[in-house]
Every structure is written in structure tokens, then in C-alpha cells.
From TrEMBL:
Source organism, top-level taxon: Bacteria
UniProt protein name: Integrase
Organism: Candidatus Methylumidiphilus alinenensis
């Protein structure tokens, strides 16, 4: 299934995972990570995962 994903979505997923890792490494609280993650996913969806 991974090969059927568009390049935008693959790139977004990679950047998203990096973002999550950095939030955790910076010691953010779980609720903060959840809120930031939701905002990034929503923005990504709105802009066609080109962020």
C-alpha cells in the first residue's frame, strides 16, 4: 500500500514523524504533543499535504 501513496503524503508522513520525535525529545507534555499533532495534520490535509 505504501507505494500507492503520493509523494506529497510520503514526505508529509516523514516530516510528521520527525516533528513528533522532536516534540517528545524536547519534553513536551502528552496533551501538548496531541494538540500540536492535530493542528499539523489538519493543516496538512487542508493544503494537500504540501507543507
Amino acid at each position: 500500500m505504501e507505494s500507492s501513496l503520493s509523494p506529497n503524503i510520503k514526505n508529509f508522513e516523514q516530516n510528521y514523524q520527525t516533528h513528533l520525535k522532536r516534540l517528545k525529545l524536547n519534553g513536551m507534555q502528552p496533551k501538548t504533543i496531541e494538540a500540536y499533532s492535530l493542528a499539523v495534520r489538519r493543516a496538512g490535509g487542508y493544503f494537500g499535504y504540501q507543507i
